[in-house]
Design brief:
Helix content is 49%, strand content 8%. A 4-stranded mixed beta sheet has the order 2-1-3-4, with helices on one face. It is an alpha+beta fold. The protein contains 7 helices and 4 strands.
Length: 206
């Protein structure tokens, strides 16, 4: 059985839970308790981050978007057409450069009370977040999905942190095409994949 090394508040791990259609077991990782820095975990992912998908034979895949690509192979979530597949990769790279490290970081700092601690970085990240959301808005005007006419792993990846942008001061009402897209993705994903709040271990004193 597949094993997902998971931290519930992580939207990177959330992406994988959305796409996992096979039976799997969850191995919770207490990030702020140091469990991602143990020798055992670092053997699975030298970067010491969740999620990690451990296969039945013990091999492991880290990085959420790499896991999405593995799980989506042969499904409707990863196009067979060469161009469309490259476009999916384009948005996966975009997400890891402009969305997760920017909106994801700002969101975490805002919710965990760490904005002041990271004050020197906030303005730059806010400017990049605005550019990222504007880029998404331009792409999504007149489109139902990021690539093609149906949901792909590009939508799942970008939606994960993108739809939580209001948590760090960027309400999607300012980006109507993005908001409409986010509503469509939410409807297609369906209930059961709630966003988990950061717990006490994510407090500034942790």
């Amino acid at each position: 059985m597949l094993t997902l090394h998971d931290y519930l508040p992580s939207q990177n791990a959330w992406k994988v839970r959305v796409l996992l259609g096979l039976p799997y077991r969850t191995e919770p990782v207490a990030i702020f308790g140091g469990e991602s820095r143990t020798d055992e975990f670092l053997a699975l992912n030298p970067a010491g981050a969740v999620p990690v998908l451990e296969l039945e034979d013990g091999r492991a895949i880290a990085e959420s978007n790499a896991i999405l690509c593995y799980l989506a192979e042969g499904t409707r979530y990863l196009p067979e057409d060469r161009f469309d597949r490259a476009k999916v990769m384009q948005w996966l790279f975009f997400e890891q450069y402009y969305v997760e490290p920017v909106i994801g970081s700002l969101r975490f700092w805002a919710l965990a009370g760490r904005l002041e601690l990271n004050a020197a970085l906030v303005d730059g990240k806010r400017a990049t977040a605005a550019r990222a959301l504007s880029a998404l808005e331009r792409n999504l005007v007149g489109r139902t999905h990021l690539v093609g006419e149906q949901m792909s792993i590009a939508d799942i990846a970008v939606y994960a942190y993108g739809h939580r942008s209001a948590d760090c001061g960027f309400p999607l009402s300012a980006y109507p095409a993005v908001a409409a897209w986010a509503n469509r993705v939410a409807a297609e994903i369906g209930p059961g994949y709630r966003v988990h709040p950061y717990g006490p271990e994510a407090s500034p004193a942790a």
